[in-house]
Amino acid sequence: MTAAPERPRPTRLQRVLTVLMVPLLVFNLVGIARAVWDSRPVQTWRAQQNGLPVYLRGGGLYEGLDHAAQSPDGRWVAIGGSRKYGDSFTARVALWEAATMDRRWTTDLPTADFRSVNDLVWSPDSRTVWIHDDEGRVTALDAASGGVRGEWRSFEWQPCVFAALPQGLLLTDAAGPGRDRPVRLTLRRWSDGAVVWRAPFACWWEAGGSVDAAGTTLAYSPRRGEVALYDLRTRQPRPERFRFGGEEGPYSLALTPDGARVAAGWGEGTLTVWDVAAGREVWRTRPHRGLVRALDWNPAGTALASAGFDGCGGWRSECVVVTRAAPDGPQSRVVWWQRYDVPDTVQWLGPDRLLLGQGEGSRVVAVPGE
To answer: CA quadruple 155, 156, 157, 159: dihedral positive or negative?
Structure first.
């Protein structure tokens, strides 16, 4: 009987490739399992973190709801983002009842390609949710039903300003399509979206904008590295100019409710605060080590919430920090963290809670006292 030929031993290269393929196979299996898990039908999820409610996404292979805002009357939470349909993404807005955590309605705005919510605000009477999407459209949704009440072109895929004033919606738009068209600051009436006034405007879109509670002052960035103020009564820029010393930002701005101080978040994690009347910097700190995406002052104007990348202590990759002025310098405290998911929006809900808008699930977190 002829002996069976000896099987050739694997070469060193083959052994190395085998070892490398094992973690790749495990990674792919985990990805498949997550896709199956995410695609299961879920209507409403309820969960708790830090003893407070969480507004989580649910249903379908992908639903990114990351721009959150509570209505002025406190009854509702609206969250906007996008929903995947086949090869396209459509803008999606969902409404939750704040007291029961039940999702009341979901509205999709159709598109043939890609459409997502860039920003979201409430009308002062809590009856309408206004969104801006990256197809350059402004849409008003009825808070009771989710139905579209009106839609207007802005020709801006990302507005410099999108803010709720007592007298109307303030936003930037353009004179028409194309890159070289002039930008305008526009006020639209809450009742029907009609234009109240327009004025020429120059801004850097990455910074966003912030208005005081009275709707008289706008903080914005006319160009990289600079923060400026705009008088909404006269529709003219104010003479104040605040500079950080570099051009990496600002990426977020926040005026105190009384308009006395303006804060800016920069690309390498620094927060700067200026006194508007005195025209000088009052404090500076660096609680993050990467881009500061969102800022918001508490109602008293004494605590600044910031959402940013990196740092925040050890393996806490992304976090939300609350910073307060103190005799020996500003003091920062991490109130929430998560790896790889910085909130797109931060909103104070009274003196001791924050609403965070993030893709994996918008949530409310507690803020310890001083």
So the answer is: negative
